[in-house]
Design goal:
Structural class: alpha/beta
Distance between the termini: 10 Å
CATH superfamily: Response regulator
Number of domains: 1
Number of helices: 5
Low-confidence stretches: none
Strand content: 15-25%
Number of strands: 5
C-alpha cells in the first residue's frame, strides 16, 4: 500500500526535494505552501503522515499541529516537524504542541527516509 504524505513547506526547493525523495520511495505526496487551511487539508485528505515546517506564512507550524491534535479525526496522525531553528525552546514548543518527531534542517536524505518509514510503519 502506498503511504500518503502531506508536505507543508513554504520553501519551493526544499518542498520539491522532499517530494521527489518520497515519491521515488513510493509515497504519494500532496503539498501545501502555507499553514492556512492545513489542518482542514489533513481532515479531508487523511494522510498517513504530515511533514510540516515550523515557520510558515499565514499560520505557524505549531498552530497547525495544535489544530490537528485538537480534532478527533486527525488527533493521532503522525506529524514530523522540520525547522532550520533547532534551539531547545523550539523543540520544547513542538513537543508540547504534539509533534511526533522533530527534524532540524539541513537533514540527510537517509535520515528523512528512515524517519518517514518509522512514522508510517513501513
Amino acid at each position: 500500500m502506498t503511504s500518503h504524505v502531506l508536505l507543508i513547506e513554504d520553501e519551493p526547493n526544499i518542498a520539491e526535494a522532499i517530494r521527489f525523495l518520497l515519491s521515488r520511495e513510493g509515497c504519494r505526496v500532496s503539498t501545501l505552501h502555507d499553514g492556512i487551511g492545513a489542518a482542514e487539508a489533513v481532515r479531508t485528505e487523511r494522510p498517513d503522515l504530515v511533514i510540516l515546517d515550523l515557520m510558515l506564512p499565514g499560520c505557524s507550524g505549531l498552530d497547525v499541529v495544535e489544530a490537528i491534535r485538537a480534532h478527533p479525526e486527525t488527533g493521532d496522525t503522525p506529524v514530523m516537524m522540520l525547522t532550520a531553528k533547532g534551539q531547545g525552546r523550539d523543540r520544547e514548543a513542538a513537543e508540547k504542541a504534539g509533534v511526533t518527531l522533530f527534524m532540524t534542517k539541513p537533514f540527510s536524505n537517509a535520515e528523512m527516509l528512515a524517519s518517514v518509514r518509522a512514522l508510517v510503519g513501513k
